[in-house]
Amino acid sequence: MTIPKVFVNSNMTATFACESCGELHTKDVSKFVGHKTRVRLKYKCKCGHTFSVFLERRRGVRKEVFFKGLLIQNQKAYRGVITDMSLNGIRFKTTDKARIEEDTVAEVKFTLDNRSRSEVLRPIKIRKVFSENCLGCEFVDTNHFDDLGKYFLFHFDQKK
Ligand SMILES: [Zn+2]
């Protein structure tokens, strides 16, 4: 049996459904958010069913996406794909091997899959180099006032 993962919402709650009756439960998980290890919550539903969920502690909702884009550093553009995104950052997979170091800054340019195919350009910081072509990046500014902000609002429904 696989234990489902649930996300922490911006108000430090997590919402999950009972596996047996489908009833939705919202739980205050603020005290777990700072935990370094994986948090497993056990929950007993009104229907009597007991079940577990793993708490996804990364702040903000992370979503799997597939946006083609460019990562630009030192006037070199690396072609690639954004494979997941949250309010805080993205994961960027370059098509070719990239020599990019952690804690450096770059720019990322990509196209959203919204109706107007908005182009987004953002300064980012390379937080983690997972491999030669997979980078964990953080938005330098997490206030998103342009079409990316709207995208988060309408495509990242936290109540799902
Ligand atoms: Zn139930």
Automatic annotation (TrEMBL):
**Gene3D superfamilies, alphabetized:** predicted glycosyltransferase like domains (2.40.10.220)
Pfam families per record: PilZ
Provide the GO MF annotations for this entry: cyclic-di-GMP binding
Q: Which PROSITE patterns match?
A: PROKAR_LIPOPROTEIN
Enumerate the spans annotated as PilZ domain.
56-142
Q: What is the name listed in the Swiss-Prot or TrEMBL entry for this protein?
A: PilZ domain-containing protein
Organism field: Desulfobacter latus
